[in-house]
Amino acid sequence: MTRDCLNWFGQSPARLRRDHAARAILAQPGLGNWTGVQISMR
User: Which among 15, 31, 32, 41 could disulfide-bond with 11, CB atoms 3.0 to 4.6 Å apart, if both were Cys?
Assistant: First the structure.
């Protein structure tokens, strides 16, 4: 997991937990912070 975190975010999980600015960016919609809205492709 640490290797994947480094590849995706450039930081270790421990460092991301301490980096409040990075966490704020990652919490933006479209980056995994799903609202529960489903999109149907019928």
Answer: 15
